[in-house]
Amino acid sequence: MEALKINSDRLWDSLMEMAKIGGTPKGGCCRLALTDLDKQGRELYIKWAEEAGCTVKVDAVGNIMCTRPGEDMSLPPVGTGSHLDTQPTGGKFDGVYGVLAGLEVVRSMNDHGIKTKHPVEISVWTNEEGSRFAPAMMGSGVVSGRFTLQEILDTKDVDGLRLGDELERIGFAGETPVTGRNFHAFFEAHIEQGPYLEAEEKQVGVVTGGQGQRWYNAILTGRESHAGTTPMHLRSDALIASSQLVLKVEEIAKAHPPGCGTVGFMQVMPNSRNTIPGEISMSIDLRHPIDEELTKMDAALKAAIEEIEATGPTVSLDPFWYYEPIHFNETCVNAVRQATVDLGYSHMDIIAGAGHDACYVSDFAPTSMIFTPCLNGISHNEIESTTQEECEGGCSVLLNAMLTMAEVV
Ligand code: HGY
Ligand code: MN
Ligand code: MN
Ligand code: MN
After folding, report:
1. Rounded CA separation 301/252 (Å)
2. Is the model's pLDDT at 170 over the cut of 80?
3. pLDDT band for position 123 (cuts 50, 70, 90)
4. Nearest CA owner, ligand 1 atom 4
5. CA-CA distance, 392 to 409, in Å (whole number)?
6. Alpha-carbon distance 273 to 213, whole Å?
7. Whole-number pLDDT of residue 1
8. Residue 315's closest CA among 305, 329, 325, 307?
9. What is the pLDDT of residues 135-155, one digit of tens each?
10. Residues 172-180: what's their mean pLDDT?
11. What is the DSSP pairing of strand 185-191 with strand 78-82?
12. Which ipTM value was assigned to this complex?
């Protein structure tokens, strides 16, 4: 069967329509997980999916499953999907592109009157970003068994609001069990969120895997005291200690290329300009495509903390989230590569720098991903940008890879 194209204008219009929900002045999106804006985005998506003839279910952690029937409903579905929640200063495409590309695949199958042996199922995974409720990839992580449902429902945000209560409040505490999900194959389309496709002038990224991640919470404890009366040599300044730790995180990442190290969250207590900070809570995010290197970075972090503790403040480190580098399924990777070739797009193999729900889906189903370029590789930023043509390319590859695995009848 010759490669099919999707309806590019319809995909782009849906992306721009969804971007209005939580739209920000700088052209980005803020739809934090399980907020009213997330609820609005979810409800709009369900409306579109039902209009496209899908049956829709919601599971106990709020994942949405939109199923287009196949000729043999006893077969596991061929899946796709991503997330609708965003970063606080997120863009229009991170996650959203994947769920709307999935919808466009269904719409295009309908346009072409295509029947598939396997059902086709789009998943909208809950709280992929891990910004409001940490860690990330919660919805896919519960389904893959990386997290228990209860521990995720009991997770709290910085205001002490419990995830399970927020799920109830927005009406997405579903009936469908989170266990027993299966896919014949699963593909996630996503913007690359990095600079490599653009730099290499490639239209499609054939994603062969994803780098591993280690997330930590660190609490540094010094001693509050007066900014004017406490001599410098008598201080135990938690912010000085955490500043040293921030620089150590950068040093460790640079010592293990192409690893990444980031401190993105910090709370200063008591956060008063004329009181020496007594306590700092901060996040640490380490990533590397090779597990042995990620382990070395972990060891270097702990050694750095020992050095800092010798200067006075104590440091408690909670290594609360880890997953090893992911290797995607060869059959699915080849289906993506073949669809790309059939459509005549330039492409390159690439490892995902970001975490994606596909990383956890690959625990229980053959999985791969499709990347499209984004302007200057910028993401998790309101200026995140891509073109209609690039969105069309990735989505056409998704359609054809899914048709290959779903078996057209
Ligand atoms: O952190 C990540 O890589 C993703 O955006 N959750
Ligand atoms: Mn994403
Ligand atoms: Mn993201
Ligand atoms: Mn994702």
Report:
1. 7
2. yes
3. very high
4. 355
5. 25
6. 35
7. 67
8. 305
9. 999 999 999 999 999 999 999
10. 96
11. parallel
12. 0.89
Q: How far is the CA of 129 from the centre of ligand 1 (A)?
A: 5
Distance CA 133, CA 31 (A): 13
% of the chain surpassing 70 pLDDT: 100
Q: Coil, strand or helix: which one is 347?
A: strand
Residue-wise pLDDT for 290-326, tens only, equals 999 999 999 999 999 999 999 889 999 999 999 999 9
Question: To test ligand 1's pocket by mutation, which of 380, 381, 384 has the most ligand atoms within 8 angstroms of CB?
Answer: 380
Q: Has residue 101 got a pLDDT over 90?
A: yes
Kindly provide the residue ranges of all beta strands, DSSP E only, lying in 161-242, ordered along the sequence: 185-191, 204-210, 212-221
Q: How far is CA 140 from CA 254, 282, 365, 390, in A?
A: 31, 26, 12, 26
Phi, psi of 59 (to 5 degrees): -95, -175
> Residue 89: nearest ligand to its CA?
3
Which ligand is located closest to the Cα atom of residue 323? 1
Q: Whose atoms come closest to the Cα of 369: which ligand?
A: 4
CA of 358 to the centre of ligand 4 (A): 7
Q: Which residues line ligand 1 (CB under 6 A)?
A: 128-130, 136, 354-355
Distance, in Å, from the CA atom of 125 to the CA atom of 84, rounded to the nearest integer, reads 8
Taking alpha carbons only, the member of 148, 155, 167 closest to residue 131 is 155
Q: Is the dihedral of CA 357, 359, 360, 365 positive or negative?
A: positive
Mutate to test the pocket of ligand 1, among 356, 359, 379, 381 (most ligand atoms within 8 A of CB): 356
pLDDT at residue number 2: 80
**Residues written for the chain:** 409
Q: What is the pLDDT of residues 272-299, one digit of tens each?
A: 999 999 999 999 999 999 999 999 999 9
Which of 129, 132, 357, 369 for a ligand 1 pocket mutation test, highest count of atoms within 8 Å of Cβ? 129
Nearest ligand 1 atom, CA 353 = 3
* Residue for token pair 């042996």: 117
Structure tokens at 327: 């290797």
Angstrom distances, CA of residue 50 to CA of 38, 123, 408: 18, 14, 22
Q: Is 280 helix (H, G, I), strand (E, B) or coil?
A: strand
Q: Are 6 and 103 in contact (CB under 8 A)?
A: no
Q: From the CA of 102, how far away is ligand 2's center (Å)?
A: 14
